[in-house]
Design brief:
alpha+beta; Arc Repressor Mutant, subunit A; Alpha-Beta Plaits; 2 domains; four-stranded antiparallel β-sheet; 6 helices; elongated
């Protein structure tokens, strides 16, 4: 699906606040509310927009301790096996296959170091995990839900 500047502006508006009304977005992109709705429906049908969610402050939920864990797996481990294991662990908030020495990178979040250690031990107990390398997050520098564009396409207001 080819996205134009208006599609990008709609996506940016929804990323900034998914509760924005079609009328509010329409004002930003110079379209009527029904026209915005049609575009959003088209973006959803094409799989560009995959859902809507609430962003929750980890401090408010008491889960401010986080780590990135490199997973080193047995030779025949598939991405599907890693994904299934990641879904079994509630402390896992992201999991990715990666290029390099590690096979996967897992993002963990917990209430404190003891809880993080327990989550890490449970992850290490997966049958395909050979070893891990953990990096504790000290501070978040950039944490943006916004979608980066592949190219600098101007928005509805002419900015890139």
């Amino acid at each position: 699906m080819q996205l134009d500047a208006t599609d990008h502006a709609i996506i940016a508006a929804l990323t900034a606040d998914a509760r924005s009304s079609f009328a509010e977005i329409g004002q930003l992109v110079s379209l009527s509310a029904p026209a915005v709705k049609r575009r959003v429906d088209r973006l959803r049908a094409a799989g560009v927009i995959t859902g809507f969610t609430a962003l929750v402050d980890p401090e408010a939920t008491g889960t401010t301790t986080e780590a990135f864990v490199e997973l080193y797996c047995t030779g025949r481990t598939t991405p599907a096996q890693i994904a299934a294991a990641a879904r079994r662990h509630p402390s896992v908030i992201g999991a990715y296959t990666v290029a390099g020495e590690a096979d996967a990178l897992v993002h963990l979040r917990a209430a404190d170091i003891p809880q993080l250690e327990q989550a890490l031990e449970r992850l290490r107990s997966e049958s395909f995990v050979v070893s891990t390398k953990s990096m504790i997050v000290l501070s978040r520098l950039v944490d943006s839900p916004h979608v980066a564009r592949a190219s600098a396409t101007p928005t509805a207001d002419g900015q890139t």
